[in-house]
Amino acid sequence: MAATRLDRAAGFLAAALFFSYSVSPELKLGFALAGNFGAPLKYDNDWAGRYYVQSTTMLGLSLLPSIAFKVNDKLSLGSSLNAMYGMYTNQVAINNPAPIFGDGKLKLDDRTWGWGANLGLLYEIDEGTRIGLTWNSQVDLDFEGPAKFSKLSPGVATALNNAGLLNSTIKVGIKVPQQVMASVFTQLDPRWALLGSVGWQQWSKFGAIHIGIDDTSNPVSLTTDIPFKDTWHVATGAQYRLSDPWLLNFGVAYDSGFQPDGSTVSPLMPLNTAWRFGAGGQQQLSKTTVWGVAAEYIYGGTLKTDLQGTAPVALGGRGNLIGSYDNTGTLVMSVYGNWKF
């Protein structure tokens, strides 16, 4: 496969719901239903890297029953259970060397539950300044399902059967990274406030894998590990009180790369180091109702892919995938509301 410019585009709609109840001035209960991570990814069926990935979806939906307690005028503590429902699909083309058969397919599709916990601390230094510290535990999502093959040529089907792979089970263990985040808020004057945060995520244990066959003439495995590394996050921002009902928010953040080879990434996850630029505003409609809108642009720069197969495509291999994702970016738009009753 020759060097090429790689293209991908996707739209994804998500929603979240939050509820809180005041048991007393010191004790609060809450529940949240929110997306934790993930998005769908789909390439054209005939793209150059179809023997590495054609389409994939990794999604985590969290149910979060929570409790918070005000210890004193300065210190508040909170915790929640994280019941995460994971959804995973991955489809890849299988190389039938004889052109008359076209490409075969391999698909894995599974759903599972994982469990974790979140802890938080909020300390008020003075009337206008407070600091926060949160910890989110790792969540293990153990996906498992039969290898669903289709449209295999007789020769490839026989080779897979002789290797014990045709009716095998594929296991994909994904560990949603644990993370620690520290943040600060300070009110400078009645109009301006400054914010900042720094965090760490343990991506080195994420554990995602490619599925597929490196060489259909000599198949030995249906999976290949993808290495990752831990990341750091830093952000700064500000709030401006435009008027009594309107508050404006804006900021910038940087996330270090979780794929270890600098700008070289897997086509399964074509993202790495990222700059985030955000802006938004919220309006106080009444004493009980607030609504707001926000936008975030995530810039990932140009990312390269350089995967070397063990055999050329003409002989049943995946071939080499060498190319780039130029000027990658993601736009996130959100609308939210808060109603007290």
Automatic annotation (TrEMBL):
InterPro entries: OMPP1/FadL/TodX. It is a multi-pass membrane protein. It is found in: Cell outer membrane. Belongs to the OmpP1/FadL family. Pfam families: Toluene_X. Signal peptide: none annotated. The keyword Cell wall biogenesis/degradation does not apply. The keyword Transmembrane applies. Its main location: membrane. Keywords: Cell outer membrane, Membrane, Signal, Transmembrane, Transmembrane beta strand. Coiled coil: none annotated. It comes from the Bacteria. This is Transporter. Gene3D superfamilies: Outer membrane protein transport protein (OMPP1/FadL/TodX) (2.40.160.60).
